[in-house]
Amino acid sequence: MDETLRYKIALSLIPGLNAVERRLLLDHFGSAEAVFSKERLNQANDLNPKIRKNILQGTALQKADEEIINIEKNHIQVCFINDDNYPKRLKACPDAPVIIYSKGLSDLNASKVLAIVGTRHATTYGKSLTEHLVRDLAQVFPDIIILSGLAYGIDICAHKAAIANNLNTVAVLGHGLQEIYPVMHRDIAAKMQCNGSLITELPWGTPSAGWRFIQRNRLVAGMSDACIVIESAEKGGSLITAQMTSDYGKDVFAFPGRPCDEYSRGCNLLIKKQIAGLIESAEDVITGMNWTTSQKNKQIQRCLFPDLNPPEERLYHCMTIGEKQSVNELAIQMETKIGETLSLLLQLEMAGLVEALPGGLYCKKEI
User: Fold this and answer.
1) Is the pTM for the entire model greater than 0.70?
2) How far apart are CA 93 and CA 223, in angstroms?
3) CATH number (domain holding residue 53)
4) Domain match, 262 and 357 both
5) DSSP collapsed to 3 states, 165-192
6) What is the mean pLDDT of residues 38-47?
7) Four-CA torsion 303, 307, 313, 319, nearest 10 degrees
8) How far apart are CA 143 and CA 181, in angstroms?
9) I want to staple 231 with a disulfide (CB 3.0 to 4.6 A). Which of 36, 118, 325, 360 is the partner?
């Protein structure tokens, strides 16, 4: 048994401590092994007696022994906070975990890591935004890592888009590596181990729970250069991740939407509160991050939004991809005259955003 690893894992399993306190303990004693030295513990007069008792009772070391068996049996990589390969972005956060477990191949210290998060109830519009954003970023930065939480909606869409564009993608889990939640994302999780990694701070056997997903959001924020929110209600995990990212002093971006759309309100709120910068394309992200691009890839081949005037853009957002809508119906939604609506539809059709169908119907196209 690797004794050094045993003490490192045991440090993460001492009961009654949070991530900040574990790091303080490590800094005070100088090494994980020293934390469990009875002599050193007895000399630490300023140490909380309850913490000293929790360390001396030995349950953390016993659990570490069990954890090492699971690690070896399931081919799990372990990264300690003082290891060279520990994510440097995360290490800079005061509440970074002392241990992270992973399965996969990703370099967590890649030059560019971008978190993409959003509602679990993603609309067709939100999924399209995600797919096009990841595609356009991949064209310029083929080594960028896309980070998310493997949840329904925008998260899984971001992971799938990354794989489709040959990007590495990392999922941060709110449970141990013994399971995948949700279960229906197992196939994607398996692919990600060849095109990225599954990451967690939680030991083997830790079940999923709502509060743990909120806790893991700090890892999503901490491991990335910036966080992009694509569709969110006024409350939810995406806004928590965005706030954490901002609190860490990192950039947050959000796609705006119509005020009447439930899953645009969160993004609009982030922009209104100046927590997030407004973006409409991958190019906006690149500019906002001051990322330099090679001359060869200076221009992104396709923008998410062509140049539209405000009425055209408003009509575009009123429509749903794949849904056939009449001029009359759109005129009512827009509160405009039918002639004016027809003129706007013609402009959108000429821009390649709308398709005219028989019977006076129109359909929004994927861009």
Assistant:
1) yes
2) 9
3) 1.10.150
4) no
5) CCCEEEEECCCCCCCCCCHHHHHHHHHH
6) 85
7) -50
8) 27
9) 118
* Maximum Cα interatomic distance, the chain, rounded to a whole number of Å: 86
Evaluate whether residue 323 is within a structural domain.
yes
Q: What angle do CA 72, 75, 79 make, to 5 degrees?
A: 85
Q: Yes or no: say if 7 and 33 are a contact pair by the CB < 8 Å rule.
A: yes
Both tokens assigned to 57: 């009772």
Which two tokens mark 242? 């965005």
Strand order in the sheet with 361-364: 324-326, 361-364, 354-357
Q: What angle do CA 57, 59, 62 make, to 5 degrees?
A: 130
Domain for residue 163, yes or no? yes
Rg (CA), the chain: 24
Integer Cα distance of 188 and 12 in angstroms: 29
CA distance 240 to 149: 13
Residues 240 and 162 placed together within one structural domain of the fold: yes
62 assigned to some structural domain: yes
Digit-coded pLDDT (tens) for 321-361: 778 888 888 888 888 877 678 778 877 887 778 888 876 78
Q: Assess contact for 101 and 78: CB atoms under 8 A.
A: yes
214 located within any domain: yes
- Residue 133 domain boundaries: 113-297
pLDDT digits (tens, 9 = 90+) for 185-211: 999 999 999 889 999 999 999 998 878
Do 255 and 331 lie in one domain? The reply is no
